[in-house]
C-alpha cells in the first residue's frame, strides 16, 4: 500500500511540474510557437494521405500494355457525399483488373494486387458501411471506359481525396 501512495505522490508532483511549465510556455511568444509546432507537426507527419501507396502503384500500372479491359469509371466530379461509393466503385473494378491480370499473367500483377489490397484495407477503415445518399450512383450506372481512362480518373479521385 505504501508503494501505491508513493506512486500517486510522484505522479501528482510530475503533474504539478508539467502543468507549471505548460502555463509558463503560454506566457511568451516562443512558448506559444513551440506548443503550436508540437500540436501541428505530428499531425502533418502522421497525417499523410492514406491513399499514398495506392497512388504510387497506380503510377506503376498506368502505362501497362498487358491490361486491356473496359471498366465502369466513376465521375471525378461527384458530390463529396458520394466520395466513398465512388472509391468503392474504383476498387471493385480493380478486382476485375486483378482477375484479368491473373488470367493473362500480366507483368504488373503484383502492383494491381497491391492497389486492391491497400484500397480494401483503407475503405474498411473508412465509413464503408455508412449510409450513402440516394443521389449516389451504383458502380454499374457509370460509363465503361478503357483502362487508361479508368486509371486517369482513379488518380484524379485519389488526388482530390488527399488534399
UniProtKB/TrEMBL annotation:
It comes from the Eukaryota. Pfam families: IL15. One of its GO terms (cellular component) is extracellular space. Keywords: Cytokine, Disulfide bond, Secreted, Signal. It is found in: Secreted. One of its GO terms (molecular function) is cytokine receptor binding. SUPFAM superfamilies: 4-helical cytokines. Its main location: secreted. Gene3D superfamilies: Interleukin-15/Interleukin-21. One of its GO terms (biological process) is positive regulation of T cell proliferation. Belongs to the IL-15/IL-21 family. This is Interleukin.
